[in-house]
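User: Can you predict the 3D structure for this chain?
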Amino acid sequence: MSTPDQPTDAREKLSAHFQGDSSLHNQKWDALWKEGFLPWDKGFPSPALVDLLADRKDLFGSVTEGKKRKALVPGCGKGYDVLLFSAYGYDAYGLDVSETALEAAKETERRMEGDETYEIKGVEKGSVNWIVGDFFTNDFWKDVEGEGTFDLIYDYTFLSALPPSLRAGWSARFKELLAPQGKIICVEFPTYKPHSTGGPPWALPPKVYLGHLSRPGQELPYDEETGLLESELKEPGKDRLERLEHFPPKRTHQIGYNADGKVTDWVSVWAHPNAL
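Assistant: Here is the predicted structure, written as structure tokens:
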């Protein structure tokens, strides 16, 4: 499937660039930032996230004066979503493996000062923090204040950038970093790609999020052609994360629409079972 936002030649370049040893992917992402090859950058926050935070305060509540909460955006890129969480009162942390990406994020922060998209949406604005680090290690914790968990963790295009071999680690890490009463937001993308087409972005139908976040840390069975084998999954255990909401957003980035103008992305919200 070709779209105006990410034409076939861009996807082919990404696929070729990430062939080989997955342990080198961090350096390869940084190389793309240094080259300025950024087909994933849309220039503004995800419309699905904008609407979710504005319309579903019942899920997230509001930050009261003097009580700060922390939000994490792994693979934050230029940081549009980080700035949005700050506007809602979260102390927002944008994490990326590329220092070049975070220099661009700092420029976004300067350039967007006073933009109505990032006007204060709560009692007070939260802090904005840019951290170079690897989501799968604890090295970045030296730059995070407070306890070692986050009240909100956001994923849009981060999981799609990771090869399927890292999905068990991704889900385990989300569970580990989520505060006891915290929430995870996933804007599920790309849901329309066949698994066999590879990536990045890797195919992510809703069954992948449900399979992995319901079974954090477990290696799940995949078929090279069809993807996740749902029929072979075991029942989720006590260490699961629970899906609270799952729905197609009213709006999303253009790349999340099909040729008929229908939204193909989904939004899911997750929590620890004891937080329900």
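The mean pLDDT is 92. The CA atoms of residues 257 and 263 lie 4 Å apart.
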